[in-house]
Amino acid sequence: MNLASYIDHTILKADCTTKDIRRVCDEAAQYGFYAVCVPPFYVKYAASALEGKPVKIATVIGFPMGYTTTPSKVEEIKRAIDEGADEVDAVVNLCAVKDGNWNFVMNDVDSMCTAAHMKGKSIKLILETGLLNDKEITRLCEIALEAGVDFVKTSTGFNGGGATLEAVQLIRKQVGDKVKIKASGGIRTRQDAERFIEAGANRIGSSSGIDIVS
Question: 203 forms bridges with which residues in the sheet?
């Protein structure tokens, strides 16, 4: 198994610097990772650093809390893509989920999905499964299918714990083969990555990509 091709080599620390981004980009090119995932502030720099390389540029939207307004998320997506992002990882509005305001959630997800797809780019919907029950995860998977997101992603890694095999298995049960899954948060070893892929993950988000492939 070519694990490198599954990995979004990630750096989203609040205090990361241009030097850190350069290192992550160089590592991604060296090890053949699928993508780097960097803060929106560094998208343009990462795109320049990886120009001519096969590594994709991913960034985060509404991160890490998800409760910013829908228009602001849409503008974040447009700006990120204009600056070079190939994929956007957007956090669902957990406040609306917990309130049971599913119409708002559907509009929020659909608006973000439209913004990404109108520019020909992929969107991953971050659920934050550690803060959700199975019923909420199931409903969000239904919304993801209806909106046409490209990936459902387990976690930001900043709230409520990281990915679990049970969450990935539940998501796969709900979306079948119609939506891909990104497992993210706390995945640090080759064994971890292989288990999540076996459970149904198509992509692994990790800041420990080198440890995983080594």
Answer: 182
